[in-house]
Specification:
Helix content is 61%, strand content 9%. The protein has 16 helices and six strands. A hairpin with a 2-residue loop joins strand 3 (87-92) and strand 4. Helix 11 crosses helix 12 (294-302). It starts with a helix and ends in a 10-residue tail after the last helix.
């Protein structure tokens, strides 16, 4: 195997290309090396005079965000924000001469979005619980009763981790949304409804289903008797009423189609996109890059929010942002720091001295030589 630094770096780059979240990044770097990217992706450099809103898939590693922040600083002399970090000053309600600082992506709408992402799980779980009503176990139909109980138990169990995880996010966002509400009174109705729904959903329904899953898991799927099966079914059925109440609270009816549920979710996402567009318009003179989800960029472009061909701020897709970024990255000390620093010195954290600092201080040659030759190594080489 070729162990020259250049060969090691190339192998590391190949490993990077084969693993998420780096796959698209490495592929585009390769296109740049082959001089093919300009013909495939429209070039759109950062605008140093206004706010730049750029799309992404939210799969960036911490290292890539460090590099994107350095790129932002160099090209705009401004700040780099992730989706939920950008804030803007807006006129205070009824007091035009005063302003309040608010999140461009409102915490209230983030909370609403998190809850709405779980409504499909709610609808599915209520359906599975309803099937337990067919369980009438006797010693003569144990195989069928076991199948009914455990097949639906397994389906419900599949939904539980996501619901619990989203519940944890909801509980983090809830106090933030309540704190934000005085500054965003236009969201009061949505905030009140979703907090009422969220508390009942996560603290009542999901917590109860979690306990039911735990209790049912103690039964032996091949040996459970009629009494155990009937109790498990009855305990699960007891949550149907609560589930239906939640569905009516959210949709104002019990029977909801997948299309109707998706329409509600799309409406929540579009409301976030609209809030981001308004914030970017109000904060158009703030220098830097605000990374938001690709869906929001698409909403702004296709949803009739733009009054002209170009908004007051700079709006770009993920690919438009990455075209110039990847060219910069391929030539910058940041990327060279990963390629020769982390690749050769096997440094996978940023604790003692960052790779970017190594690059700026010109320590790559020292690093490579230290790994080739015996003797004491610099403290920053593992």
């Amino acid at each position: 195997m070729d162990n020259r630094p250049e060969a090691i770096a190339q192998r590391k780059l190949q490993e990077m290309a084969n693993s998420s979240p780096h796959a698209r990044q490495a592929a585009q770097l390769q296109m740049i090396a082959n001089n093919k990217s300009d013909s495939l992706i429209q070039r759109k450099p950062l605008n140093s005079g206004v706010l730049n809103m750029a799309g992404e898939n939210h799969d960036k590693s911490d290292e890539f965000r460090i590099w994107e922040a350095e790129y932002t600083k160099e090209k705009t002399h401004g700040t780099y924000w992730q989706e939920d970090e950008f804030k803007v000053n807006k006129p205070k309600t009824d007091v035009e001469e005063e302003t309040v600082s608010v999140f461009g992506d409102p915490k209230i709408l983030q909370m609403v979005n998190i809850i709405q992402l779980n409504t499909k799980d709610l609808l599915d779980v209520v359906i599975f619980l309803g099937r337990l009503q067919k369980v009438k176990a006797t010693r003569f139909n144990l195989p069928l009763s076991r199948t009914l109980v455990f097949s639906n138990y397994k389906l419900i169990k599949l939904h539980l981790p996501k619901m619990k995880a989203f519940g944890n996010v909801y509980k983090k966002l809830k106090p933030q949304a309540q704190k934000e509400l005085p500054k965003r009174p236009e969201y009061k109705k949505a905030c009140d409804l979703y907090i009422q729904f969220g508390d009942k959903f996560y603290d009542g329904f999901v917590a109860g289903i979690d306990q039911w899953i735990s209790d049912t898991s103690k039964l032996n799927e091949n040996e459970a008797n009629a009494e155990q099966l009937n109790k498990a079914a009855a305990d699960g059925i007891s949550f149907i009423s609560m589930g239906n109440q939640l569905i009516v609270m959210m949709f104002e009816k019990e029977l909801v189609s997948a299309e109707e549920n998706q329409q509600l979710l799309d409406g929540v996402i579009f409301a976030r996109s609209e809030a981001m567009h308004n914030a970017a318009t109000e904060g158009k003179n703030v220098k830097g890059v605000w990374k938001v989800g690709n869906t929001h960029v698409k909403d702004i472009k296709d949803g009739g929010m733009l009054k002209s061909v170009s908004p007051d701020y700079e709006l770009m897709t993920e690919d438009e942002f990455l075209t110039d970024f990847n060219k910069w990255l391929a030539q910058s000390p940041v990327y060279q720091g990963w390629k020769y620093g982390m690749g050769v010195a096997h440094i996978y954290d940023w604790s003692e001295i960052t790779v970017f600092e190594m690059a700026k201080e010109g320590k790559f040659d020292d690093m490579v030589e230290a790994r080739k030759n015996p003797g004491p190594r610099p403290s920053y080489i593992i």
